[in-house]
Amino acid sequence: MPDRKVLDPTEARQATPQRVNYRVLTRSLLMAIVAAAIVYAFFYIQSPA
Questions:
Q1: Residues 5-40 pLDDT 10s
Q2: Which domain holds residue 48?
Q3: How many domains are there within the chain?
Q4: Does 28 fall in a domain?
């Protein structure tokens, strides 16, 4: 594999400028909040008055 790029440890730990990790964490947090709200609403509707 001659086109393989070798990085030293400092370069390998650098952040990406696209902020991909931030986007993934933000979207997964929002999805978890929406899922929790749906589950809460379902059980709230099912509970007797």
A1: 888 888 877 767 778 888 999 999 999 999 999 999
A2: 19-49
A3: 1
A4: yes
**Tokens in use for 22?**
């931030």
21's CB contacts (< 8 A; 6+ apart) are 15
User: Model's pTM, two decimal places?
Assistant: 0.63
Per the domain annotation, does 32 fall within a domain? yes
Distance CA 18, CA 27 (A): 15
Q: 27 is written with which tokens?
A: 């979207």
Give domain status of residue 8, yes or no: no
Q: What angle do CA 38, 42, 43 make, to 5 degrees?
A: 120
3-state secondary structure 28-49: HHHHHHHHHHHHHHHHHHHCCC
Instruction: Match 């609403």 to its residue by tokens.
Output: 41
